[in-house]
Amino acid sequence: MRRCLSCNYCVNGMRTGARISCVVNPVAGFELDFANPTPPRGEKICVVGAGPAGLSYASLVADRNQVTVIECAPVSGGAFRYTGKAPLFGEVEAAEESFRSYITELERACRNKGVGFHHGVDVTQDPQVLDGYDRVVFATGARYRYGLGSFAMRFLDSGLGKTRLGRRLFASPRVREWLYYGARRGTGPDMRRLARPHQRVAVVGDAARAGKAREAIDDAFRAALLSEHKRDAGADAPASDKLQAER
Question: Where are the alpha helices (DSSP H) in 113-163?
Fold first, then answer.
């Protein structure tokens, strides 16, 4: 079960005749893609990053593996915790409590399956913590270019995102698209070098390619449940949804 964010992503898809899909549950509308899942089994897995992609991956593979999540921040959620501080999520007003609750419940689901957590650990400063794992999954999100990261966080923390100025800024679809894609880059290529030669490595979510929450969570689901071939074959599914919706 995944807590609904009330973002209307599914409703908007139905209204436009596009293929139905869900931000937090990428299986919805793509059931045949996931009909024969092939998750890893019997492995010791480390997931680096406790945002929605990392937590989704951890929860999906926890049943038959020993899973640990390592997060450099003191709490889980990553940049997703800031999403509720923006004026809009998709085309509806963002509610901060919805995003906090979503992360809280997703972390609880992981813990209930025996996933271990280590917060406040930066693997770039202490790469030895990755020793002993069979598989390392980097879900470290994307970083803003041009030094915009600290500015964006201060802007949202100040509450300006909910003001008239913030609403005018985020009202432009072009601005929002640029903030998601053009202004950010994935961290995965830099993180891969931290893994040991014998370890299986995966890069998921925004760490692989900066994008929106739907794309990041979908990528985590595919990495957790599908073989590499199937994952690649379905990698563009969310983008196809978007094109259909725009038409």
Answer: 148-157
